[in-house]
Amino acid sequence: MSTVSAHVLDLFAGPGGWSQGLRALGVRDIGLEIDAAACATRQAAGHLTIRTDVAAYPTAPLAGKIAGLIGSAPCQPFSAAGLGAGHDDMDLCHQALDDLARGKDTRHLLRARCSDPRSLLVAEPLRYALDLHPQWVALEEVPAALPLFRHTAALLRTAGYSTWAGILNAADYGVPQTRRRAFLLASRHHTVTPPEATHARTAEPESLFGPGRLPWVSMADALGWGATDRTAPTVTAGGGKSGGPEPFPTAARNALLAEQERGAWALRNGNQPNATVRGIHEPAPTVAFGHNSARITWTRSPDTPESVRITVTEAAALQSFPPGYPFQGTKTKQFEQVGNAVPPLLATTVLTSVLTPTALEVAA
């Protein structure tokens, strides 16, 4: 088995949301990821990757080589879009955490009792942290997993870490999306506090303590749509079923272009009557596609059923990925990767709160 010389380890690395956040800080990581399409995306983006099952990968080859640990375990068991099996498995997850802290590895026994075997993946970061003793840790999950993060934080404190666990809204950090996620931050070398918000729903004036927070970034700003001329979304079908480009826009996209000056466009998240609808001069709702990548669409008004499916490029921009980020795989797999990733802009801010200048030098 290959050994790893990188100083930052990214568990469940996905397409590279955390990796892009680190790249902005001049730091490179190595990701462990099992999904072939996500691995291909990471390779195309220049991120080091080992294709493997995080739960099966041994920590011994990594001993003494890891300064930082990142982890975003699969959220499906705990997400609102999933079947909720993670809630049924919560007690088993807590038990796995306690057992690992006692030096007992009962994961295989507990996994067999889980409604969804993926639920227990939320305990993997603690296994790596206790075995590898990194200088710092940064974890992300859906809000429903916060009790498990608080439990993990308590166990890390007994191992010598300063910790913080709570909910962050991506819009408060310049991401054009009101995405709320649980985070756990830990450091061996300094007191950890949550990152200070840089943006707010309404712009704040300058005070004696410095400049106020900026207004939330809108979808129009992120996508380059004019504030006064409501330019239509990018005219592209978003790629064929295989993930490649389509030679011509769909009829729906052509209609969107032809009618771009009629009314304010909005983004609808879901097909239900109570689906969240946001105007283009607001941040997007949470961009998460699950098994239905066609449920996030552009609409001419909240009251009209006609809609145009969002493209991968547009979804990636709303997640703060840089233009042209090379998502690979089928269109469905690309949407899945975008929706599951940590927004890179938020990742940079979060990582800044746990990385000291010394840690940056070590990890670079």
Give a description of the structure.
- The chain has helices at residues 17-23, 36-45, 85-88, 90-101, 107-111, 124-132, 146-158, 219-223, 251-258, 312-318, 331-340, 344-354, 357-363, and strands at residues 8-11, 30-33, 48-51, 68-71, 136-141, 162-169, 180-187, 199-200, 214-215, 266-269, 276-279, 296-299, 307-309.
- It has 364 residues and is an alpha/beta fold.
- The chain has two domains: 8-202 and 341-363, Rossmann fold (3-Layer(aba) Sandwich); 219-338, no CATH class.
- The strands form three sheets. Strands 3-2-1-4-5-7-6 form a seven-stranded mixed sheet, with helices on both faces. The chain has a four-stranded antiparallel sheet with strand order 11-10-12-13.
- α1 packs across α12.
- It is globular and about 60 Å long.
- The two termini are 25 Å apart.
- The relative contact order is 0.16.
- Mean pLDDT is 86; it is low at 1-6 and 227-238.
